[in-house]
Amino acid sequence: MKSSLFIASVVTGTILVSACATTQGPKPGTSMQVRLMQTTDLHAYMKGYDYFAQKPTSDYGLAHTAVLIEQARSESANSVLIDNGDVIQGSALGDYVAGEGVSYLTQQTHPVIAALNTLQYDVANLGNHEFNFGLEFLQATLSQADFPFVSANTFIAPSAESSGKKDVPFGSAEPLVEPYVILQRDFVASDGRTHQLNIGVIGFVPPQIMNWDAHHLDGKIQVQDMVKAAEHYIPVMREQGADIVVAVPHSGLQNFDHYPQFAEQASLQLAKVAGIDAILFGHQHRVFPGASDYDGLPGVDNDGGYIHGVPAVQPGYWGSHLGLIDLQLRYDQGWQVAGSQVSLREIDERTLAQVDASVANAHSETLQRLNQPVASLQTPLRNHFAMVAPELTVQLINEAQQTHGETLQQQGILPTDLPVLSAAAPFRNGSQGASDYTSIAAGELTLGNLSDLYVYPNTLQVVRVNGAQLRDWLEMSARAYEQISMQPESNEWLLREDVASYNFDIIRGVTYEIQPHHPARFDADGELIHSRHHRVYNLRYQGQLISRDDEFLVVTNNYRASGGGNFPHLDGSLTVYQSAEQTRQLVADYLRQQAAMNEGVLAPELDIHWHLALPRGARALMQSAGSAAAREEAAQLRDIEYLPDYDDHEFDEGFAVYRVLP
C-alpha cells in the first residue's frame, strides 16, 4: 500500500531540483525573503457554493481563496503553498465522490485533488477526516496528487495486535505516507542570484483517528504522539540538509498542566520542539492570530501570531482565509531565520475560474444526486433551538436509528431481551455563522436536504450500557449549559461556547429532565469533577425510574461509540455492533418508508420526552439565528421568547437573542 500512497519522485530526503541554481554559494550576510502560504480544513468546499441552500456564496470555497493565492504569489518571488488536511470530506461534493467509491477514481481524478493540482500545491498534510472513507479510498485519492502528502505520526501496523495509539520506537513500523519531505527550491536572494533553499515540511494528525475511524483503521494503522514524532524526525531533517523546518500539525492550541501523551490539540507543545522555524496549524476551525479563544494562553502572542516565539498561523476553515508567514532569512554558514511576519487574508466575492472549471463535472453530478426526491414534507424541519427543547430534526434521526436497531434485534443480530434506545445530536447549530442551522421548508424533501439534516459521513454502531452509564452519557451532554444561578431576574447566558452542538446527545426511548442550576458532573475530558452533583433527573424507561443496573442497547454513530467527545465509558469497549453503512443512508431509507405508508407524505409528530427544568424566574438567554424562520420556530415553542430589543450583547451579523422560559 505504501508505495502507491505518495508520489514516486518525492521521498524522504529526495528533492525536487531546478537546474538553474547558481553554483556559487551566497556570501555571509546575504538575505532572502520566503513566503509560506497555507489553507486548512477546506472540507471539500472547492467552489464558493452552499450545497444546503444550493446557491453561490462568497463566505467560503477554495475558488475564492485561489484569488488570494495567486495574488500572494505575484507579490513574492519565493513562495510555497501548503494544505493542512481535512480536505476531501465535508461538503456534498466530497460525500458524492466518496459514495461513488474507488471505481470513480479509476475513471477520473478526485475533484478536490484536481483543484489542488490546478493551484500547484507543493505539499499537503493528512487531517483526521481523510480517514473517514477507509484506507483504500484514501490510497486511490492520494495517488492522483501532483504533490506529496505527509504525516509523521501515522504508520502501517506490523500486525493487527500492534495497531492503535502506541508509544513504540520509530522504525519499527512503516510510515503510511512520508513523515516529511525536503523541498529543494531555487529562490532569488538579495544579491540578485538564485540560490538553493531546502525547505523541510513535516505533518501531524490527531492520534484520535484510531477512535473516530476505528472501523476503518483497527488492525491496520498505528499512531504515535505528535510531540514525540517531532522530537524524533526534526533532527533527522536537519541532518539531511533542511535549511528551515515548517511544522504542519492538524492540531489546535490547548494548555495542559502536564502534557498528556497522544493529545489531540498539541500545537502549543510542538512549538517548544527545537528546530521548528514556522507552524501552519489547523483542525479547530478558528483563525490565528486573532481568535478570542486563544487569549491568555501561556506563550501565545495572539496579536502578532507567535507560539513560544515561533511564527504560526491558522486560516479558519472552508477556505475562508489564506494564511501567510513571511520569513526573512540571512546566510551565515547556512540559511537562518532572522525575522518573520504573520498575516491572514480574508476572501471576498472574487473567484478563480480555473478552480471552478476543475470541479465543474463533479459539481454538476453532485447537484443531480442532491435533487433526488425522498418524500413530501408536511411541516418544516428546523433546529434553531435544538439544544434547549425537543425538535424534529434530531427526533427523525433517532427514530431511524432506533427502528434500525429493533430490526437488527428481529434478525437475531442484537440481543432481543434489552430495550433499544437511540442517541443523536444537532449537527448544524450556528457554529459556522447565523445561516448554519438546519432549516428545511415544507414541500419536497430531497437527498440534499438529508445532507443538511445529517452532516457527517458517520456509520452506525450499537453500544450496551447500564443505567449508571446511560445517566453519565446524558450528564456529559448536559455540560452544554452554563450553571444558572437561583437568583431570579438576572440575565444569564445558558449555553457554553466551548461545547459543540454535536456533543449534545439527545437520547430517545427514555424520558428525563436537565437541571442546569447544578454544577456539571464532568469536565471536557469526561473526568468526574463533582461526584455529589447531577444535572439529569427523573430518568425513566416506560414510566419506571431507571436503576444503575438496568441494561440497554443504544444506537449511535461511530464517532460517539469509539470515544469522540470524551463521553464517560464510551471508548469502543461497549460496542456490540458496527455497520459500514452511512447513517445518512439509513435515515433516507427510513423517511422513504414512513412516507410510503402515508401516500408519499412525511408528517412527523413531535415527541416531548425531555425538557430543561430552569429555576423559577430565571432569565436564561441564548443566541440563535435572527431569521424569519428562527423567529417563527420560537413563536411555536412555548418555552422560547424572542427579544427583538435586547441590545446588551455583541454578536455576529444575523444572530438574535432569545429567552428560554422556566
From TrEMBL:
Domain Calcineurin-like phosphoesterase: 35-286
Subcellular location: Cell envelope
CDD domains per record: MPP_CpdB_N
SUPFAM superfamilies noted in UniProt: 5'-nucleotidase (syn. UDP-sugar hydrolase), C-terminal domain, Metallo-dependent phosphatases
Catalytic activity as recorded in UniProt: a nucleoside 2',3'-cyclic phosphate + H2O = a nucleoside 3'-phosphate + H(+); a ribonucleoside 3'-phosphate + H2O = a ribonucleoside + phosphate
Cofactor(s) annotated in UniProt: a divalent metal cation
One Pfam short name: 5_nucleotid_C
Signal peptide: 1-23
Gene3D superfamilies: 3.60.21.10, 5'-Nucleotidase, C-terminal domain
Keywords: Hydrolase, Metal-binding, Multifunctional enzyme, Nucleotide-binding, Signal
PANTHER family: 2',3'-CYCLIC-NUCLEOTIDE 2'-PHOSPHODIESTERASE_3'-NUCLEOTIDASE, 5'-NUCLEOTIDASE-RELATED
NCBIfam families, A to Z: PRK09420.1 (NF006938)
Record-stated family: Belongs to the 5'-nucleotidase family.
Protein name per Swiss-Prot or TrEMBL: Bifunctional 2',3'-cyclic-nucleotide 2'-phosphodiesterase/3'-nucleotidase
Organism in which the protein naturally occurs: Aliidiomarina sedimenti
